[in-house]
């Protein structure tokens, strides 16, 4: 942590110009929030995304009002030179893992190269705050040297670093950027004061200043690690109770009557946060000679749940002969990593689909929210808005993602085919979407099981 001389001048925010690198689920809402107080330049390397934003289209679906894209104070660009007049730059690029679950820092270090060129061209010090999830030490040990190398300038004199962990919850209309307490940190008292004042100007929930950048980085990565482990526990309980013939939801409801019982639900853990962030912490731990046990065990449990759900469905469906007399057919409802968001990155539903296909099930997938082009390009999978065949043709229906429209669609289709089925349709409800009364109303036309 740098020590600045007492009384060092803090950047005046009255006429500051702000840059945001990365206009995804984190960067876009953040940029719009700041654009209501400052001039903001939003930068992204995806030219198609920039064109969509300029046309007033929000690819993330996160903005409450897409009209905000037309704010006079908000400009978007794929040209890094447009950032050279910004005194403050916030970085919100993805930090995924590779196939071996090791941190993939290429997007982050690419942003640092861009920052280096910006700092090189700047006549005044540039304040840079990272929001991307990383392991403790990454900002100062990995990002800082790249910026110095490409700028030819010095940290602590020509540019100052900070870290403020993102807390965006995709699809959440209640907990927004402005209404979530913000953790900030800086490399020195001066930069901490700048970032504290900056975020406090738009975040109504308040700002917490962490002791160091490493503390802020560690705080972020353990937030999702803790959640991952709690979900892993109830997922493992669901596996145990399935073998015991006990309904997991009923058990959790009974246990939840105690005041200090943590109310987590079982499910598929995908996406680019909970299913990824723990690997950043375990990677860093291993570099200092410690092999995490609890964290990796939780990850293993959650990564296996999609296959477990598929096998439960297969076991139930194959109690009856296939409807067409030839092979079994399954309908998977929902494909994105989370309800009511279009993002298909790291969705665990693909593991479920592959497990069904391994047992020669023919699989149709419906999802009117997920991006069909990305699903085809990334997974070679065709998404449908509606079931491509009558519900009566399916031996197995898996409610994988609880989109708002999914429940009504499935109930309507199942009720319509109830009078025509010779054997029950096996329904697997991953998220407990159907209520007990709705299940009873379907009667013997459905063989129902929930995770």
Describe this structure in words.
With 451 residues, the chain is α/β, with parallel strands linked by helices. The chain folds into two domains: 205 residues, NAD(P)-binding Rossmann-like Domain (Rossmann fold); 147 residues, NAD(P)-binding Rossmann-like Domain (Rossmann fold), CATH 3.40.50.720. It is 38% helix and 13% strand. It contains 14 helices and 14 strands. The strands form three sheets. A six-stranded parallel sheet has the order 3-2-1-4-5-6, with helices on both faces. Helix 3 crosses helix 4 and helix 6 packs across helix 8. It is elongated. The N terminus is likely disordered.
Task: Please provide a brief summary of the model.
This protein is α/β, with parallel strands linked by helices. The protein has helices at 27-35, 47-54, 106-121, 138-151, 189-200, 213-244, 248-255, 277-287, 294-303, 305-317, 349-358, 372-379, 406-417, 436-442, and strands spanning 17-21, 39-43, 74-77, 88-91, 126-130, 159-163, 182-184, 207-209, 329-333, 362-366, 383-384, 396-399, 425-429, 446-450.
């Amino acid at each position: 942590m740098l020590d600045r001389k007492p009384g060092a001048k803090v950047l005046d925010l009255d006429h500051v110009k702000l840059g945001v690198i990365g206009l995804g689920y984190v960067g876009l809402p953040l940029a719009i929030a700041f654009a209501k107080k400052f001039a903001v330049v939003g930068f992204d390397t995806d030219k198609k995304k920039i064109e969509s934003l300029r046309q007033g289209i929000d690819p993330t679906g996160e903005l409450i009002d897409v009209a905000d894209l037309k704010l006079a104070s908000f400009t978007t660009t794929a040209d890094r030179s447009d950032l050279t007049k910004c005194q403050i730059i916030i970085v919100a690029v993805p930090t995924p893992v590779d196939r071996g679950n090791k941190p993939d820092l290429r997007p982050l270090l690419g942003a640092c190269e861009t920052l280096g060129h910006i700092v090189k061209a700047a006549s005044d010090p540039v304040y840079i705050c990272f929001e991307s999830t990383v392991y403790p030490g990454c900002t100062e040990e990995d990002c800082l040297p790249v910026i110095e190398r490409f700028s030819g300038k010095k940290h602590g004199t020509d540019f100052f670093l900070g870290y403020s962990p993102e807390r965006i919850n995709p699809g959440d209309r209640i907990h927004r950027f402005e209404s979530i307490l913000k953790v900030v940190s800086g490399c020195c008292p001066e930069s901490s004061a700048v970032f504290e004042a900056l975020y406090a100007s738009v975040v109504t929930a308040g700002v917490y200043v962490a002791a160091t950048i490493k503390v802020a980085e560690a705080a972020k990565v353990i937030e999702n690690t803790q959640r991952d482990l709690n979900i892993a526990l109830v997922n493992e309980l669901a596996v145990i109770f399935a073998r015991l013939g006990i309904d997991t939801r009923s058990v959790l409801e009974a246990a939840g009557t105690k005041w200090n019982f943590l109310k987590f639900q079982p499910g598929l853990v995908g996406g680019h946060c909970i299913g990824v962030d723990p690997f950043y912490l375990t990677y860093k731990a291993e570099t200092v000679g410690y092999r995490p046990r609890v964290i990796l065990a939780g990850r293993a449990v959650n990564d296996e749940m999609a296959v477990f759900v598929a096998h439960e469905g297969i076991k139930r469906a194959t109690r009856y002969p296939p409807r067409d007399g030839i092979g079994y057919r399954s309908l998977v409802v929902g494909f994105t990593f989370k309800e009511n968001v279009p993002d298909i990155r790291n969705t665990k539903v693909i593991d479920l689909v592959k497990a069904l296909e391994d047992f020669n099930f023919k699989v149709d997938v419906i999802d009117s929210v997920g991006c069909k082009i990305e699903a085809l390009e990334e997974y070679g999978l065709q998404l449908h808005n509606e079931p491509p065949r009558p519900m009566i043709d399916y031996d197995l229906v898996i409610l994988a993602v609880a989109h708002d429209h999914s429940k009504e669609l499935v109930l309507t289709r199942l009720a319509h085919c109830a009078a025509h089925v010779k054997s029950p349709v096996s329904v697997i409800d991953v998220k407990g979407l159907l209520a007990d009364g709705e299940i009873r109303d379907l009667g013997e036309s459905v063989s129902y099981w929930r995770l």
